[in-house]
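Changelog-adjacent note: as of this version, every example in the card shows the full chain rather than a window. The one below runs 462 residues end to end.
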Amino acid sequence: MAIAAVAVLAGAPAAAQDSAVARLEVLQTEISKLQKEVAVLKRDVAKGRQGVRRTVKQVAAIKTAPPADSPSIRMSSSNRPTICSSDGRNCISLTSRLQLDFGGYNYQPNTAATTPQDLVGGVIARRAQFGVIGTFLDDWEYSFVFEGGGSGGATSVVLDKGYLTYSGFEPFKIWGGILSVPYMLDRATSNNNITFMERAAPVEVAAGIGGATRSAFGITANDRRWWAGAFLSGPASDRRSRDARQAAVTGRAVFLPVLTNDASLLIGGDVQYLFDAPTGASELNLRDRIEMRIDGNRILGTGALPIDSARVLSAELAGTLGSFHFQGEYFDFNVERTPGNGPNLDFSGYYFQSGYILTGEKRSYSANSGSYGGVTPSRPFDWRTGDWGAWEIAARYSVVDLNDKDILGGRQENVTLGLNWYVNNNMRFMLNYINGKVDKRNSGGDVGADYQAIGGRAQIAF
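Full-length structure tokens:
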């Protein structure tokens, strides 16, 4: 009996220990189940949050996204506000241009018979343009631009350009309307991008015959290394007199035997033939100013010529080597006067210019126009970051001789120095110094002049 009691007492602790172990195992099992359930709940909560986020984003996108067929509004590469259809085939852009010129002259007429006796400096809006340009159905392009500026400070607003083009027959492009005829290298370059404030005098004399901005119809074609174009031109857009007919044909072709990222060479030729010359009060007058147009007076000119036809042949040479660029053109004029008004006349002119971009940028060739574009600063001006845009120096020598036989229109010679600051893609400031003279005589003797001029331009264009 006693022995049995002892055995029972001895086994009690062991049984208690086994029971505790069993309960602990049960608890651990329950804890593991709870941990798994918590993990599942956490995953469900996370998935729920992600779903909520996706739903919020989808709702926001639905609220902000335009309908699939709505137009898009964006800025072009030249910062023009542009509206395009959803398929991108139809676009319209606002375009504007302001060239504010200022400067003065040191003008010294050779005699009291010189006309004019003085040139007056000041400030003018050389160009003040606003209009729209765009495309529709991919292949059609249009431009309607009004001009409120002009040489000598003109203030009347006129339709400067209004034309339509079609480019569905690659590589050809058909043009029609009032446009700047792309004849000659310097005229093919936009006045936004020309190196100096004004184009060289012989260029403007040649353009006045049948080029410049006037009613025209023509066709151009180009590839990467060549450009060609031919146009039939009529009266300028502001000519209303039936007597001011003036019809001509122009042709231009260029080829680039060298065209790399670091160098290029352009060779070209041009022809112009005026076959229906203006008569009466609008007879042709070959003339120009002194390559700065703050004062609108012309000091070079043949006077009105009763002519039957006129022909101009010209040659182009231009190129780039790194940041250095150059270009030049030579012009040969032949004027056939109407019977009984004297013999035929031969005039000539040429210019050569070069420039260097001090900040390392380059002037690139534009295959679409067959000319060189402007300077795009690699570091637009921002005084906070120490960026100062692009800087360029340039020089030009030009001559145009309108003296032949009984016509003494004058021989003009100009040397121009230029400094250009390209602030950003849309703004630049120009400074030009001109030293020149006009050797001109008539029945009154020496009516020429010597002059110096200094002028500047503030330009903004979109």
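Structural remarks: The radius of gyration is 38 Å.
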